[in-house]
Amino acid sequence: MCRSTTSPPEPNPSPVLSTDKLRPPPIYPSPFIAAAYFDAVRGHRRHVPIHAPPSRKSLDFLRTLRDVTARQNSCPCSPVIGYNRPPIQHPQWEGSLAGLFGLLYTDKTNLVTEIGPAIVLPAFQRTHVASHAVGLILKYLLDIAPSGLGFRKVKWTASPFNVPSNRLAKRMGFKFEGLIRWTSVVVRAEGYQKDGKEARAGDAGDGLLGRDSNELAVCWDDWEGGGRELVEQAFARVA
């Protein structure tokens, strides 16, 4: 998902990140992805990323994701397609849009990055999609070249209120490292519920809620000490 200029041997510059149930689309015009995303979350109140704009317009959504990833030394969100699971919503992809995944705060010098956003669409929750997508990213980041990038640490942050996200991270081998307080301002998105806490009156946040974050991580030694096997077991489960 994210290319690197790490030391030789060089990783595969165009990896095929897929399993028997999940893959990226071969080509995806961004406005079409945004439209498909909003169609999939219509009527669901918790599926706008924390930095999403208050507008539901596709172009606004795309511009915000572009701006956020540029500021945070990140890789753009990549859509993932679930297949072998009818009904097929997007025949041109031989599957249905299942989620959006990306990387944040990538530090090539210190070999650290963070998975995010990690969004599974409502129709694919409690299925294989989350574990397969996270597992593929972990394999690419933590495996040694030529199959991976050979990073040393992959982080995961989640609101303490987001029980499914915290549970997924722990199931995929992430270890809890601590609670980081007041990590984000929670942007308003009309019609969508956002969990957060009140800040002091009159601060520069103009009344916006704030968020704490649980920080979890998989480090290279966790990966070599059983983390890779956890991911392979997740791939083997039938869901």
Secondary-structure blueprint:
Blueprint: E1 22-23, H1 30-41, H2 58-71, E2 75-82, E3 96-107, E4 112-120, H3 129-142, E5 153-158, H4 163-171, E6 175-186, E7 209-219, H5 220-236
Parallel strand pairs: 4-5
Antiparallel strand pairs: 1-2, 2-3, 3-4, 5-7, 6-7
Span between N and C termini?
A: 24 Å
Percent helix, as a range, is 25-40%
- Coarse structural class: alpha+beta
The protein's oligomeric status is: single chain
Are there runs of 5+ residues with pLDDT below 50, and where?
A: 1-9, 50-55
* Spatial sequence of strands, sheet with the most strands: 1-2-3-4-5-7-6
> Could you describe the largest sheet, including whether it forms a barrel?
7 strands, mixed
Residue share in β-strands: 25-35%
Q: How many distinct helices?
A: 5
* Mean pLDDT across every amino acid position: 77
Number of strands: 7
What sort of overall outline do the alpha carbons produce when their principal axes are compared? globular
Radius of gyration: 18 Å
Spell the H/E element sequence. EHHEEEHEHEEH
Descriptive account of the structure:
The chain is built from five helices and seven strands, in the order E-H-H-E-E-E-H-E-H-E-E-H. It is an alpha+beta fold and 239 residues long. The chain has a seven-stranded mixed sheet with strand order 1-2-3-4-5-7-6, sandwiched between helices. It has helices spanning 30-41, 58-71, 129-142, 163-171, 220-236; strands at residues 22-23, 75-82, 96-107, 112-120, 153-158, 175-186, 209-219. The model is unreliable at 1-9 and 50-55 (pLDDT under 50). It is 28% helix and 25% strand.
